[in-house]
Structure formats: structure tokens, C-alpha cells
Amino acid sequence: MVFQEPMTSFHPVYTIGNQIMEVIRLHQRCGKTEARERAVEILARVEMPNPEQQINAYPFNLSGGMRQRAMIAMALACKPRLLIADEPTSAVDVTIQAQILRHLIRLQNEFGMSVMMITHDLGVVAETAHSLMIMYLGENVEYGPIDEVFDDPKHPYTKGLLASVPKLGKRAKMALNPIMGSVPSLYERPDGCPFHPRCPSYMSGVCDKGVPPLVEVGTGRQARCFLYGR
Known about the structure:
Radius of gyration: 23 Å
Strand content: 5-15%
Shape: elongated
Strand order of the largest sheet: 3-4-6-5
Number of helices: 8
């Protein structure tokens, strides 16, 4: 009988400082000492407590909010002109969420950069964005200024999203109006408009036959729907 030692894999864990410094040294010509100084500086700018000490911390030593700040610091290390923030407030409570959004807005102004926010949270969108693109199955179905889209949604999917948000105040007791059905698999994409199986405005022989074009529905506004431009 042969006893074989089980195969193991080793995955090193790096400090947040090492990860930020790696970004800086990969994209900018500087030594390790200068990269560390820049890493401490950027951690301070995202309001990381005690950045000189926290730079040596491992991710598992930090709270969710502090890990998010470390990720923002890594993204800003090379002073980008465009920051793509994919669900930057996920897995944190509303208090930390508000802090992160405040930091992003402040840093956007300080760095003079644009921010593309990718999120499913309409509250985050309403608080931070100037323009809004609603996507369904990877397609742009509506685009426009944030206030106009929220006040007067054009696409049935946008209307459904806003109608399914819980209300406050006098309308708090109103029943939610969810979008019926579920998002189909990308491998079972419907013919025609991808939203037509769930759409309350579905037109037989139209929505299931052709792909709707993206049409102008106002100044700076677009919608991908057969309800418009016919």
C-alpha cells in the first residue's frame, strides 16, 4: 500500500499596503519607499484611520467599511480620469454606505474624475448620479438625466423597477407592485424585445418579432421600446 501525501495549494495573503503599492509600482516609475509613502497618502485621503499602521493590515483584520475604503484607495492610486465603481456599497450597512458615497463624491471633486456607478440600488443612484442608464439582459433600455427618468420613466422595465420600490410616508401601506416573472437565462434569450415575456405593454406580433431600436424620447433621453417611434 502506498501512502501519498495529499496535494495542497498555497495562496498567499497580502496586506492592503502591498496590494496598493503593487498598483502604484506597476503603473508609475517609483521605488518601494516612494510607493509606500503614496499608499499611506491615498489611505489618508479615503479617511482610513491610522493609515501608517493600517497599511500593514490584512483584509481579514478590517471591517467591511474599511475594506471598501482600501479598495477605493487602490482604485485611486494612479489618479484615474474615470473610476468604475461596481457595487461599491454592497455588504455594508446603511451608515457605512452613506460614508462610502460621501467619500466617493468628495474624491470625485478632488481628483476631477468621472465616476461610473454600477448598482442595483436605486437609492444609491438617486443620491450620486447625474445621468442614468437602465439595463436589461445586458442592453441599454433607457437613458437620461436622473431626475427626468425617475419622475417620468418611459420604458416598461424602468416603470416596473420604480413601482416595486417600497414607499414612505402616506403611501407606506400601499402594496408593492413587483415585476412578474423572472429574468431569463442568457442562454434562453427571448426573441424580439428581451423584456416582452414580462412586459405589461406587450404587443403580440410586434414585441416578439423584432428587436426594438433605441429612439429619442426627449432631450438627452432614449428608450429601447416599440411604444415609441412607430
